[in-house]
Design brief:
The chain is α/β, with parallel strands linked by helices and 588 residues long. The chain has 19 helices and 18 strands. β3 and β4 form a beta hairpin.
Length: 588
């Protein structure tokens, strides 16, 4: 019998886990025969991908505490003289349990290289026996095109070779570069034509600017964006010239010490100038924001109702379901800032109003008018249990606990495309709170402000003029000229803006279609592409951020190693079993 060929394009955490699930499903059905799986990963970082590569700067931290990284282990596989060893869960690999996590003064947010080590070890323990058996092959190649041939076979074109006769292909290609904005195009031309001025269009790898000849104690650096990538960039630069010293373990109060004169070196800015909000410092503080299992079940039942989704003209059904529980948690806090006379119904209305429009002001909500530094200090106090908790801080932390339920129940929903686009935008708007960094990161920012290394005077939408001396950032009161600019605003997954050839070719061939102008690709519940012509069946699946618009919640590491790769693997294994059975009948 001939060999059935399957390709996986992009073998970072999601692609590596998809392979693992496929092998487990095939072994379960005793059908790990007559198959060859070709793995394509342009970076060569198989199993961990470029985000968790082992060569990156340790200033890049993972943004989820190890306490909640519930990554299950893998059981051993023994079938037809093939032996694949078991692999421990992440917590077993760390040799820590829930009780020890809950006793910690502060949650641990490790550098990405640590997660990379876990993912690499897990992948290698899986793939080496498969390579020896000729079931899997690794290709350090960039895939340029994926073509559906008239025979319904698939052709993969890489930068090195053309591969034919694949029966099916999975794309887990992750973050793709998009077309540059008009502002960045203008800055790019400006920097290319002016000596001593340097633009970095992407923040990673950090080594690109840290090793540049113009990177020294006298450089002034503008940082476009005030989010998570900014934190990595800020920390890496600061550590080149000094050190952070923890003065108080309980609050992670930090000072920054340097021997260099680097006043005003870092000048971050964003459209709204609003700072990130730290997550609770440890499991004990976080516990007060956690909904009960019955709250979660009721919430999932309400937002998962297909009739309600189909009738929805806005995300209100999600907002009201959330506000019901979030208001209850806010009322139960022993140290909230709620006024004595306010009712639960009034708080529910405040929650809905704020989630609809975060410029909404109220006495219970942290004002956006106050300075970024004041807000960061206030939020640190809340995250460490030292200050009264504002309603917006409570909303953000409760939303974080509800996100897995939102992602599960609202992926592949019955809402209209426009309503789902609003839901995704709503979730994105909460991420300043729900995806916030650890307290330690915010304390590092505050320490750099106190040391006068970080200049927050221009953080809110400054005027920007291109001069002969560099970018001049100014407002009505202050100005600063920077000669190095780092863009830390990461691209949104808008399929029509992606500029990589494999995506553009799939679009032009009609193999993929955009869900919405602002979103990604249409896929079915198993991850397989839904083409322009719905009567057509296409044996190509796509998992990850480019499917944002059919699914919600695609970037987190727990989503990479979650249900979606498992569902694809179950369907893909079933496809293989049918293929083997059909071929056996044909041969008879």
């Amino acid at each position: 019998m001939e060999i059935r060929k399957v390709g996986i394009v992009g073998v970072g955490p999601r692609g590596g886990y998809a392979l693992e699930r496929l092998i487990l499903e095939l072994a379960k059905q005793r059908s790990l025969t007559n198959i060859h799986i070709s793995l394509f990963e342009a970076t060569g970082y198989f199993g961990n991908g470029h985000v968790y590569n082992l060569n990156q700067n340790p200033a890049n931290w993972i943004n989820i505490t190890e306490r909640v990284l519930d990554i299950k282990g893998r059981k051993s596989i023994e079938i037809d003289n093939l032996k694949i060893p078991s692999f421990p869960s992440y917590h077993e690999w760390l040799q820590k349990d829930e009780a020890s996590f809950m006793k910690e003064i502060k949650d641990s947010y490790p550098p990405r290289i640590k997660m990379g080590e876990f993912l690499t070890q897990r992948f290698q323990s899986l793939v080496q026996p498969l390579i020896l058996k000729g079931i899997v092959s690794l290709h350090v190649e960039e895939v340029l095109d994926v073509k559906l041939l008239n025979s319904n076979k698939i052709q993969i074109v890489s930068n090195k070779e053309v591969y034919d006769d694949f029966e099916e292909v999975l794309l887990t290609i992750g973050h793709q570069k998009t077309k540059l904005s008009d502002q960045i195009k203008e800055w790019d031309n400006y920097a290319k034509n002016l000596a001593g001025v340097n633009l970095y269009k992407y923040p990673y790898p950090l080594s690109d600017f840290l090793t540049h000849k113009s990177f020294n104690k006298d450089v002034k650096i503008g940082i476009r964006g005030f989010g998570l990538a900014f934190v990595d960039v800020m920390r890496a630069i600061a550590k080149e010239f000094g050190e952070f010293i923890v003065e108080n373990e309980k609050t992670q109060l930090i000072t920054y010490k340097t021997k260099h004169s680097i006043e005003g070196m870092l000048v971050p800015f964003s459209l709204d100038g609003l700072p990130l909000v730290p997550k609770p410092i440890n499991g004990q503080v976080d516990k007060i924001f956690q909904p009960t299992s019955s709250d979660l079940e009721e919430f999932e039942n309400r937002i998962g109702d297909k009739q309600i989704q189909k009738a929805a003209e806005s995300p209100r059904f999600l907002l009201t379901a959330f506000a019901d529980t979030a208001s209850k948690i806010y009322f139960e806090l022993s140290n909230s800032n709620k006024p004595q006379e306010i009712s639960k119904t009034e708080v529910e209305k405040l929650i809905v109003n704020w989630l609809r429009d975060q410029s909404f002001e109220h006495a219970t909500i942290t004002s956006k008018i106050q300075s970024a530094e004041k807000s960061m200090r206030d939020f640190v106090g809340m995250a460490t249990g030292e200050e009264e908790i504002s309603l917006d801080f409570c909303i953000g932390q409760v939303w974080r606990h509800f996100q897995p339920s939102i992602y599960k129940k609202l992926s592949y929903n019955e809402c209209s495309d426009d309503v789902f686009e609003e839901i995704i935008a709503l979730d994105e708007s909460t991420k300043r709170y729900s995806y916030g960094p650890p307290v330690e990161s915010i304390q590092q920012i505050i320490a750099l402000v106190e040391a006068k290394v970080l200049n927050l005077n221009l953080v809110t939408d400054p005027n920007i003029e291109l001069t002969q001396n560099g970018w001049e950032l100014s407002n009505s009161k202050k100005s600063s000229i920077v000669t190095m600019m780092i863009d830390c605003v990461l691209d949104a997954p808008r399929i029509k803006s992606v500029k990589t050839s494999v995506v553009n070719n799939l679009l032009s061939d009609g193999i993929i279609k955009a869900v919405h102008d602002k979103l990604g690709v249409a896929t079915d519940e198993n991850g397989y592409l839904i083409p322009e012509n719905k009567d057509r069946s296409i044996p190509i699946a796509l998992l990850g951020r480019l499917a944002k618009g059919t699914v919600i919640g695609v970037d987190a590491i727990l989503e990479c190693l979650g249900d979606r790769p498992r569902k694809w693997a179950e369907k893909a294994a079933g496809n293989h079993v049918k293929w083997v059975e059909n071929n056996e009948k044909f041969e008879k």
